[in-house]
Amino acid sequence: MFRSHTCGDLRINDVGSKVSLCGWVHKVRDKGKIIWIDLRDKYGITQLIFEDSNTDSNTFLKARNCGREFVLKITGLVSERSAKNKNIDTGNIEIIVDEIQYLNKSELPPFIIEDETDGGEELRMKYRYLDLRRNPLQKNLKLRHQLMRETRNFLDSKNFIEIETPVLIKSTPEGARDFVVPSRMNQGEFYALPQSPQTFKQLLMISGFDKYYQLVKCFRDEDLRADRQPEFTQIDCEMSFVERDDILSNFGDLIKYLFKKVLGITINNIPVMEFSDAINFYGNDKPDLRFDMQFVDLFNDVKGSGFNVFDDAEAIIGINVPNCSEYSRKQIDELTDFVKKPQIGAKGLVYIKYNKDGTLKSSIDKFYSSDKLLDIVSKCNSNKGDLVLILAGEKNNTQNALSELRLLMGNKLSLRNPKEFKPVWVVNFPLLKWNEELKRFNAMHHPFTSPINEDISLLDKDPSSVRANAYDLVINGVEIGGGSVRIFKKELQEKMFNVLGFTKEESKKQFGFLLNAFQYGTPPHGGIAFGFDRLCALFGGKESIRDFIAFPKNTSGRDVMIDSPSKIKLDQLEELGL
Amino acid sequence: MFRSHTCGDLRINDVGSKVSLCGWVHKVRDKGKIIWIDLRDKYGITQLIFEDSNTDSNTFLKARNCGREFVLKITGLVSERSAKNKNIDTGNIEIIVDEIQYLNKSELPPFIIEDETDGGEELRMKYRYLDLRRNPLQKNLKLRHQLMRETRNFLDSKNFIEIETPVLIKSTPEGARDFVVPSRMNQGEFYALPQSPQTFKQLLMISGFDKYYQLVKCFRDEDLRADRQPEFTQIDCEMSFVERDDILSNFGDLIKYLFKKVLGITINNIPVMEFSDAINFYGNDKPDLRFDMQFVDLFNDVKGSGFNVFDDAEAIIGINVPNCSEYSRKQIDELTDFVKKPQIGAKGLVYIKYNKDGTLKSSIDKFYSSDKLLDIVSKCNSNKGDLVLILAGEKNNTQNALSELRLLMGNKLSLRNPKEFKPVWVVNFPLLKWNEELKRFNAMHHPFTSPINEDISLLDKDPSSVRANAYDLVINGVEIGGGSVRIFKKELQEKMFNVLGFTKEESKKQFGFLLNAFQYGTPPHGGIAFGFDRLCALFGGKESIRDFIAFPKNTSGRDVMIDSPSKIKLDQLEELGL
């Protein structure tokens, strides 16, 4: 038995007890005749005290020679502190140590193990095991554990069953790039790692499991952005005998439960928004609803006044920014520079200041009378003191750019509070999107998504107008989950493959098992998957998922701590026939 | 809303309610003027009734035309059955159906979806989604879910934290063969899939997480036996500041909790057995303790009587088989044939019958007097009516062969009841085993296992005699889990790599990150991993793990349902530089 208590256990009513503790040396304060050591473990910090006058000299010396992050085992007497520390749970007591043992020594760590550290990103990734000792990361992984646990609690209580689906599966050409695994026993053949357990969870519905879930690792061999990882975790779910609204209700309840249980936040209602409304009002299928600033279509209001930029535009859209009529020229120029950045892509920015005194000042004064400008700001629901910002041009670009500008203004006006949460279901996405390069349609979601019933007849005539029975859960402008009601009849699935340009042979080769399964009594079913890493980051109030994953990879897909990927031995390659 | 209830919900006090149900047609009984359909879902079976006299003719016809495994939605009135069925929960009621809808039709399934099916293994694997509809498999996966859940409940309650470790890691030459994953972004380099999260969980201890667990997929590219899978699930655990007995106590409690909670069985005590005793008394490090029949060393008792087989033997060992003195010549011959099979490898079998009348009859009457034979059976603790079986020869072979014979006799005498459970900890395994081919030592467990303290000094002088601080949990002759106290000091780990024949460079290249981590305050730690698939099979009273995995692979590592592994496209290969 190494310890009688942890470093977070002891309280004032333990005074007088003989205890043994283990932990890391967090801090040493050496005042000559008295030495204090803060001993740290996962559970807390306990103060140790060594007094020259009544400590064995060997013990005193050992205390003095302790370095940061040494691992100690001590025994001693719990006593009341004279100077209490209200910031920690053990702050009323300290341990008068009579025995100290170095369980292990430590080199000086390459960065400080504190909430705020001096280590750069690269260094901390290399010494991830030390970075993980820091409080913020310990907290993040505890939050992750709690979210996992409560997700399971909720789904178990609703009669869902967690079933593990295989990791070594089959490569499919649809979707992102697969990681593949060469087979030694079947040379020249490969397994693939799953991008999601999609077909397996559908087969489980065909098997009659009724309600399935899994917290599961998935894999995508994509060029990584800052917030993507080659391996990531999903809350993967599927239900039988359900319509869309059954799924939205069930998983809306899951999200409400998690917010209540983990953060103590009550979410009353999760609104449902048409995809087309999301685009028209926010320029984005992931609207951040923590603030308003909805798009206002000004096309019919400003055309034909001789202002070429508007007269030539496919779309002219404004937003009303509250209380910003006093923006300086410099501030307006900064916004203009922002929207003109290549990644935003607007040609310029038009503003109308609706001054506090009721006058109007705009960059298009030449073309529009004050009355006309007043009409425009009225249409934008502006109040005196507000600022209207207008972009114009090709429709998609203008929507995208104005969406970015809206989010920027939200940030500037502190309207995007990370502790406030505004979920929304976005529904009825387009089923297909045109792939200009391949001159054929791709599935917007995946090939198993059902069209909404009334649009099925359009699949032949006008595929691009067909809406999918699909839905995303968006919280604060972040896509947290997405899913769909699935196709469950063989004929429709075959038609869908056909629309996606699969030959009969190809669809049989890739998905023959699923088409075959559809013949044996497939129930109507649908499901959803949540990005669990992102959910953790959202709950933790952070943007990057990296610090909610114990051992993440960097943006080149490398684990710099273990140095992977790496070369393998020649005989390994030969055995695999590579 | 598809249904108001499931097929397992309705009871006598629902009589008179209007309900809607969905499910599969399990059975149709068509008696001309009355048709009964058993409608099945995950939750149960409900009887539907259609009477010619008071059913709409279209509905009646649809009921008549239902095939097995059609998916129906029906609405109707709950009414009391005249002939009750006590075997099912809904047996008191039936539904008088007024509306029936085919949600989907079904081809005739390739085998019967009943507890006992007529489908062969290969066919059922190909149509796994249909096999999974059968009750025994539904039950197995529910049991698996329950075991997962209760494992987490127990460990969570003990302050363990579940942390996901990466799946894309680094290939290491020690242990079984790795599956590897070519990296597209780092061409010529490979990730490996983990055989276990061993080094990561140790790093988590170094990070101060104190108590870690994970239900985690692991991977081994081995030639498969019937009860092995290339991907399998572990309950993986690690603790800091613990000694061996802390671990045995904690995880013994886990196992007791699972038996109690899931099977209602009380396990009072899990004995601890030395590895050497397991070998000496059972010929096996996985002793089945449901029955006795311990080995008796007869070496000193029978040597030098002119019987060459014994005189030349390195080991002579007997077991006492109760109540079998009346075995016929044919029965004894069968046992002899069994031990002489190549995979058992004994040269022959000696028996002594201790007849009920006190006389003795043996195959070595020529060489030993009755008194001598009496001495032998006395040493074996035989009673009148028992049979002593003796094997002799090279020591290891004799122990192995007699172990097999002991298990065979256990089976014959029905002493291996699958509903009785006898766990035992086997401890103090050898640290190393000699690899004759490579002329060096391998780690018996893995290179991170600590020697027991008093043997550390023998590492230089006599490595093969060093005992490991390692332990296995064995239940009913099956290894369910294993682990060890780990090395936690850099010097000892380096020495261990050295004993295993690693050069300094190799150990740095493979495990530099761990050796490095050991320098920054590594706590004493140890852990264990349980084979979760096997645990499920054990709890389910079955030997094969296959039917406790939703989508297993066959013994060639193939998933015959999805046809994987398979060829991938040329451009995929090119992108990977293969």
By CATH reckoning, the class of the domain at 291-412 in chain A would read Alpha Beta
Query: In what order do the strands lie side by side in the largest sheet of chain A?
Result: 6-9-10-22-21-20-17-11
- Which of globular, elongated, flat, extended, rod-shaped describes the shape of chain A? globular
Strand content of chain A: 15-25%
Radius of gyration of chain A: 30 Å
CATH topology of the domain at 291-412 in chain A: Gyrase A, domain 2
Helix content of chain A: 25-40%
Largest interface: A-B, 118 and 118 residues
Number of strands of chain A: 22
* CATH evolutionary superfamily of the domain at 291-412 in chain A: GAD-like domain
What oligomerization state is this entry in?
homodimer
CATH-scheme architecture of the domain at 291-412 in chain A? 2-Layer Sandwich
Distance between the termini of chain A: 51 Å
Largest sheet of chain A: 8 strands, mixed
Task: Note the total helix count of chain A.
Answer: 17
Features:
homodimer; 17 helices; alpha+beta; eight-stranded mixed sheet; five-stranded mixed beta barrel; OB fold (Dihydrolipoamide Acetyltransferase, E2P); Gyrase A, domain 2; 578 residues
Task: Describe the protein in words.
Two copies of one chain form a homodimer. Chain A is 29% helix and 24% strand. Chain A has 578 residues and is an alpha+beta fold. Among the domains of chain A are: 12-104, Beta Barrel (OB fold (Dihydrolipoamide Acetyltransferase, E2P)); 291-412, 2-Layer Sandwich (Gyrase A, domain 2). Chain A has an eight-stranded mixed sheet, with helices on both faces. In chain A, strands 1-2-3-5-4 form a five-stranded mixed barrel. In chain A, strand 1 and strand 2 (34-41) form a beta hairpin. In chain A, helix 4 packs across helix 6 (244-263) and helix 4 (135-157) crosses helix 16. The model of chain A has no long low-confidence stretch (mean pLDDT 95).
